[in-house]
Structures are given as structure tokens and as C-alpha cells.
């Protein structure tokens, strides 16, 4: 495990842009599932596809701790049953509109199973940035999701 499953270069409006800094990051991607639903983020002020919960890993932070922190910060969901690495580590290159920078992100995807939809309130900054959207597993194929995120979700579904 931890071999690179794929390298993904965004195209179109999310493609890296000339004249902007390239920031390399090591990120987690949380594939959050409750029963037959997956949680995606819909960004409010930019025209993004729906997204997994993603985020950087703090210095000296364990990856599973980063997953838990990002899930709670960005969604408020706290009743986590399990967090398991998915065999689909990837490198993705894209433009981050709300940060005005190009990214080269190495994603470590984790399947996060919730016991319930118990949650706490999230910060007003997070609320202003995005909303949480639950999508039934049967509707994933027809949902507008970033392609690299779809590949990580599909890898998690094969591994269940």
C-alpha cells in the first residue's frame, strides 16, 4: 500500500494556471459514509464540483488524527466509528480558486464510517465556505464530483 495509484492533472476551469504559485501539500481526503450515503461538500462562493473533505496534515500529526480533525472542523460530525486508509494514494494538480494558487497535492484517502449523524456546530467561516450534502450511494454516478475524488470514492467502494 501507499504506492501512487494515479497522477491526475485537472483540465478546464480547474486546470493549473500560469502566473500563480504552485503549493505542494500532503493532504488527507475523507470519504465519509453513513449507511448508504456519502457526505460531500458543496462550496458556496465558487463554481466547484462537489468535493470530499480534504485538508493538510499538521506538523507531527498522525494521518488518522488529521482525518478526524478535518471531518469535525469542516462538517461537525463527531460520531466516528472507523477511519481506514484506502489503497488509492494519488497526486493531483489543480487550481484552487478560493486560495488563488496552484496545488500539487498528494492525497491519502481514508474511508470514514459514521455511527450516527450526531454533530456539533462548525465555525461561521466553515459555514460561509461550504455546505454538507448527503448523496445516496445509488446517486453517486450522476453527481457532479471532482474526477480525482470520484476515483477515491470508487476505490473505497471496491475495498468494502
Please give a handful of descriptors for the protein shown:
160 residues, alpha+beta, Nucleoside Triphosphate Pyrophosphohydrolase, eight-stranded mixed β-sheet
Structure, described:
With 160 residues, the chain is α+β, with helices and mostly antiparallel strands. It has a single domain (6-159), classed as Nucleoside Triphosphate Pyrophosphohydrolase. The protein is built from 3 helices and 8 strands; from the N terminus they run ββββαβββαβα. Strands 1, 2, 3, 4, 5, 6, 7 and 8 form an 8-stranded mixed β-sheet that branches. The longest helix has 13 residues, at 63-75. The two termini are 16 Å apart.
For this entry, what is the oligomeric state of its chains?
single chain
Rg, Å, rounded: 15 Å
Overall mean pLDDT: 94
Form type: globular
| Largest sheet composition | 8 strands, mixed
Helix content: 10-25%
C-alpha end-to-end distance: 16 Å
Portion in beta strands: 35-45%
**Care to count the β-strands?**
8
Structural class: alpha+beta
Q: Helix-strand pattern, N to C?
A: EEEEHEEEHEH
The CATH architecture category equals Alpha-Beta Complex
- The name of the CATH topology is Nucleoside Triphosphate Pyrophosphohydrolase
Number of contiguous helices: 3
Tally of structural domains = 1
Low-confidence stretches: none
Q: CATH superfamily assignment? A: Nucleoside Triphosphate Pyrophosphohydrolase
CATH class: Alpha Beta
Amino acid at each position: 500500500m501507499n504506492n501512487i495509484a494515479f497522477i491526475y492533472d485537472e483540465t478546464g476551469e480547474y486546470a493549473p494556471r500560469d502566473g500563480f504559485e504552485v503549493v505542494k501539500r500532503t493532504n488527507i481526503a475523507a470519504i465519509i459514509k453513513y449507511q448508504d450515503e456519502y457526505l460531500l461538500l458543496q462550496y458556496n462562493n465558487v463554481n466547484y464540483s462537489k468535493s470530499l473533505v480534504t485538508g493538510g496534515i499538521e506538523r507531527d500529526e498522525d494521518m488518522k488524527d488529521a482525518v478526524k480533525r478535518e471531518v469535525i472542523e469542516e462538517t461537525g460530525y463527531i460520531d466516528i466509528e472507523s477511519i481506514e486508509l484506502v489503497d488509492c494514494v494519488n497526486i493531483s494538480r489543480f487550481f484552487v480558486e478560493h486560495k488563488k494558487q496552484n496545488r500539487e497535492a498528494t492525497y491519502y484517502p481514508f474511508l470514514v464510517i459514521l455511527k450516527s449523524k450526531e454533530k456539533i456546530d462548525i465555525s461561521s467561516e466553515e459555514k460561509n465556505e461550504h455546505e454538507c450534502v448527503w448523496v445516496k450511494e445509488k446517486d453517486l454516478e450522476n453527481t457532479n464530483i471532482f474526477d480525482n475524488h470520484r476515483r477515491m470514492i470508487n476505490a473505497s467502494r471496491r475495498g468494502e
